[in-house]
Input
Amino acid sequence: MNSPRILVLGTGGTIAGAGSNATGAAYRPGGLALEVLVGHLAALGLDADLVSQEIARIGSQDIGFAEWQALHAACTAALADPAIGGIIITHGTDTAEETGFLLDLTLPTTKPIVLVGAMRAADAVGADGMRNFANAVKVASDPAASGRGVMLVMGDAVLAVRDARKAATSAIDAFRSFPRGPLARVTPASLDWFGPPHRACEGARYAFPQELPRVAILTAGAGMDEQPVKALLGIGCKGVVLAGMGQGNAPASVIAALADAAASGVPVVRSTRVDEGLVDRNVEVEDDALGLVAARALGPAKARVLLMVLIANGVTDAGAVQTAFDGG
Ligand code: GLU
Output
């Protein structure tokens, strides 16, 4: 049987990174052209029919609306093209969860869409990129991979991007999955799913934004006052995500200023600066009385993505925003 055609969209990152030598720490993310990467993969003798399209060659800290728009358009075209069986996006790991989650919220789940990155540059000793790439091909080629939302393949694990979080700055095993564990384990030779697709044939949950509203993340710190909240509103933020202490806490004056923001029509979502765990409603902060939203399982970066998409789709009422954050 012929292997399905996979569209590979390149954006750069460490997987396409090149250094001045194989043992040094310094390298340039996106230094390698996508064609070179795909050529390396082809040389592994993998059974795959790959077509490539370069969107960007940048470190993912620089990714933004223009690249997201281009990725969304390319994915939309590929989803409509019967010749394409799945999509792989090569991406820097710093913001892979943000790009992936934005696409997860705004694309249907009818074909596998897989983000893949690396923690070591392509020419570094012990580089992990080709292994992760070969694993991504295995996932994107599997019809059983569709209906699971956008996925991230790193370190022989397949994670749902909604659950994925970069938790280590340089370790190979850099990603964690919360609240659900990995969807599958993968190697270039095997793929084991741990359950059936949970979003089979779902349409896009939200329209892709025409523009992104300014939404800021405010990290809470002991002894801070409410002035940063006022500064954010002063520059026209349309929404605020609190990276709070513990279960989304902050000093009383900060919470009061955030409640004022919410009362003025700026949605405020309480997330946490803690690595992992749920932020629930009305634990130490009276969300019902103050008009605030609890981020539940989403950390600050992904909470910001969801809030931007909601605002762009006209969803700003605290109850409706909470429903979206509750929506698993
Ligand atoms: N900061 C770069 C990026 O996110 C390199 C990190 C990586 O890809 O692992 O693209």
Notes: The chain has two domains: 5-193, 215-326. The pocket of glutamic acid is lined by residues 13-14, 29, 59-61, 92-94, 117, 119 (CB under 6 Å). The first helix runs from residue 34 to 43.
